[in-house]
Amino acid sequence: MSFFISDAVASTGAAASQGSPMSLIVMLVVFVLIFYFMILRPQQKRAKSHKQLMDSITKGDEVLTTGGLIGRVAKVSDTGYIVLELNETTEVTIKRDFVAAVLPKGTLKAL
């Protein structure tokens, strides 16, 4: 067996495979920091900007929903629902969270 493994390497055995516990802690801290800056922080920023968008919706705004509907806000309730006016005769009640974007004024006329 000495053809493949030198005697010096074979004699160290399992003792050489263990590293210091400090290097393990440093590696875990680095992984946690990468996870925070790559995943958690951007998600928190998106959630914060979406909440600001939801709070800024007022009557008369033209909005786009996540379902693809475009309409003008006819009524905003305190319970978290808004009434969208799709055209002069059609109104739809949706949850405020499903608004994807507030469109510039005049978008409905341009379509």
UniProtKB/TrEMBL annotation:
Coiled coil: none annotated. Keywords: Cell membrane, Membrane, Protein transport, Translocation, Transmembrane, Transmembrane helix, Transport. It is found in: Cell membrane. GO terms for cellular component: plasma membrane. GO terms for biological process: protein transport. It is a single-pass membrane protein. The chain crosses the membrane at residues 20-40. Pfam families: YajC (PF02699). Belongs to the YajC family. This is Sec translocon accessory complex subunit YajC. It comes from Morganella morganii.
